[in-house]
Amino acid sequence: PLAPRPLGLPRRPFLSYDEDAKVATLRVVVFGSDRISGKVARAYSDLRLKESSCPALTRYFRLQFFYVPVKRSCVAPSTPQMHHHPSASLGDALPRAQVGDPSLAVMESSTNDISHYIGLLDPWYERNVLGLMNLPMDVLCQCAKAEAEPQEDSQEQLPILADMILYYCRLAARPVLLQLYQTELTFIGGEKRTEVFIHSLELGHSAATRAIKASGPGSKRLGIDGDREAIPLTLQIAYSKTAASGRSHWNDVEKVCTSVNLSKACRKHEELASKTECLNLTMTEVVKRQNSKSKKSFNQQISVSQIKVDKVQIIGVQSSFAVCLDQDEQKILQSVTRWEL
């Protein structure tokens, strides 16, 4: 600090921002299923909100996400599967699950639809990442053969899975953008909250069931009822039905439902041609309910309908409900009276 400084050259911090300098790339590799992809999406959304007011990380780095999905099975150990695109990657890697593990009930309820959707958008990802999903764990853990005899002091060769992840991160050159859906929730006390999800949203009985399963041993004590034993909710549902013309067609109905679920609609190549991003709205409606004083009340007749929508608003008629985002049993919101997508 005592050394003389040249005049006319202002001091700048070491990480000072230069418009002409190239922004470095920060690669984030995530392992998991749709449940973890939703967690990453919400974390990224929170980061963008913070960076918009006070940029710190994104000022010097460009983020690229690499999604390596994980396939779970109760018959064989969990098998990692890989993905190819640098801009959308999400997931959670879990240790091997033994047959009979009580936590498998929760694992099996998490899907891999986002990874298949990325495969539809990017054939490279489908060939080089999704192709690993069908490989057994013992093959993925094998070490690749060295081109030459390794020296005594050389490090152990990387397993095939690690080699493929490096290959994925180095050669994935085409970013794939994933739609982020925003929903506003209103609770019983009038508090409002904004959340985002990337794959699915569950409302009512299906969300409550997921919360009970996540309680582990407590699920046996609480018990899990099917849709026929579920307590129905009277909901005011307004939705904008998608059309080929792109025009919005609003419907406003009152339904008695056990559950209302939303999920990403694109699962086939033909559906990718549509310019309108839409969701599948699934309503489990109670058509007839048995009410008897001598027997337990149950839903005698249930109807399930599915509609493609782009905007939804649901209000509980003198009742509240639970909401689960992206199959994340750790973020189930209770006592919700209204939500809007």
TrEMBL record:
GO biological process, one term: G protein-coupled receptor signaling pathway
Membrane disposition: Peripheral membrane protein
Keyword Transferase: yes
UniProt keywords, alphabetically: Cell membrane, Cytoplasm, Kinase, Membrane, Nucleus, Transferase
UniProt cross-references to InterPro entries, sorted A to Z: PIK3R5/6 (IPR019522)
Pfam families on file: PI3K_1B_p101 (PF10486)
GO molecular-function term, one example from the UniProt record: 1-phosphatidylinositol-3-kinase regulator activity
Protein name according to UniProt: Phosphoinositide 3-kinase regulatory subunit 5
Gene expressing this chain: Pik3r5_0
